[in-house]
Amino acid sequence: MLLSTAYFPPLQWFALAARNLTLSADRVSVFLEACENYQKQSYRNRCYILGPQGVQMLQVPVVHGASWAIKDVFVDYSTPWVVRTVRALDTAYESAAFYEYYRDGLLEILESHPERLWDLNLRLIRWCLDRLHLPCSVEPTVSFAAPDSMADDWRFRIHPKHPDTVLKDLGVDRPYYQVFRDRMGGFTPGLSILDLLFNEGPDAVDFLCP
Question: How many domains does the chain have?
Answer without folding.
Answer: 1
